[in-house]
Amino acid sequence: MIVGAGLGGIAAAIELTRHGIDDVILLDAADGVGGTWRYNDYPGAACDVPSHLYSYSFARRSTWSRLCSPRQEILDYVEKVADVFGVAPLVRPNTRVTSCDWDDAAGHWIVRTEGAVFHAGAVVLATGQLNQPAYPSIEGLDSFAGHSFHSARWDHDYDLTGKRVAVIGTGASAVQFVPPVAEQVGRLSVFQRTGNWFMPRRNNVYPPLISALFRLFPVLGSVWRLALFYYLESLTAQIRHPRTFGHFGRIWSQLFMRMQLRDPETRRKVWPDYTFGCKRVLFSSAFLPALQRDNVDLVTEQIARMTAKGPQTEDGRVHEVDCVIYGTGFRTTKFMFPMEITGIGGRTMREAWADGPRAHLGIAVSGFPSLFVMYGPNTNTSGGSIIFFLEQQARYLRQAIQLARRHDAAVDVRAEVMAASTDAVQDRFAGTAWLACQSWYRDASGRIVTNWPGYMREYEKATSRLDPAEFTLIERSPVAADQGR
Length: 485
Ligand code: NAP
Known about the structure:
alpha/beta, 14 helices, globular, binds NADP nicotinamide-adenine-dinucleotide phosphate
């Protein structure tokens, strides 16, 4: 049973069916495949990771329209991959999973949706880290009398033309939708809590000659993919080594920002006050110019409360607006929320993760046999393609399911293995830029719970071969084994 038919769920389904494990079902609450690319359809939505790398290694495409594809092109790609690789018929859309319970006696999972119950020998949770919209904890948030929505649930029925609009947040989503929104609205107030480091991203359409070369010589696409891979590994090097390589990124970013920010007042307000790479570096050549438009105000006074008329900042000023758009990101430390997951002996995932989420290689959680997480704890990337990570996870969990099948059992990662590997991951953060500021990568205790601390190649190496000795086998009764498939 795969929960989630986004890029992760589809990668897992393809990996399993290719290896003869074809009794697979994917459940998804949305009305189709695509996950984050189905939900996030705000104006300007695109991926800031170049498409030749932000695509499956086994489904390369030579017809990407530009360096970083817009959302619709990516969604079309995901849908096509699901069709071509035979995953589409396995998907049950509009099916929200409410709970997954391990049945100790039977030795399998009981997966409940809003209308049905399934029995599964193994469960793959491919629900993503960036799935649950986060709203800011601002006093009186509900008292706003105008219209409001979150960037990940864009209200296309609301016409922004000529309106007074507030955008709260200046993260990776906001920097994409602020430029087109600024052109449409009457007045735009952008509320920034923390400045960001920027890198250029013009993202023009590929010239016809380049597109033709990619089509005629697919090997060029593969060479380009490899070049992008190592370029992104170099970004990780800059984050890992802020006192050496990090200076290259910082200086490049400073030059770019200095060139874009002609207005000294805006420059002062936007300039970040933390180490390069600590938060996600933002790739946009359009956001900083948009902030300097005549109809745009950058507000850096903190929001004290929300009033019926709009946000009130700490200087007492009420910013009267017709609409508030929350570009405030996702509940990143609440993995799997709001699903209830109960493992061996009735222990819930909430209990297991009471002091922060942990999983061996971000995939396997001790006490939750044959349950595998994709894009789980410490597998997000600041410099890399998440699809690369998802493919490694699919391969690893396929090996785990094969091991379980060989023994007609479920597999549970040993607690000491998980403890050692998660401690080693935390140790790898020492001295890196990630620890140099507060960010959504960290939980309340300050532990980094979302990000992988190293290179894509290191994750590939760590996950390439599953070591059976790291797992215990939990046998299932013959009847249960039959039901659980
Ligand atoms: P985000 O990076 O978490 O940004 C949220 C923004 O809201 C931040 O600027 C944050 O300020 C601000 N904020 C939160 N609470 C606030 C408050 N109470 N008052 C004022 N501001 C507040 O969310 P996101 O932009 O949606 O991006 C999330 C992640 O999605 C990205 O990091 C990335 O991994 C992914 N993403 C990827 C792409 C892509 O092209 N690949 C595009 C969009 C998103 P602080 O900085 O001070 O916390």
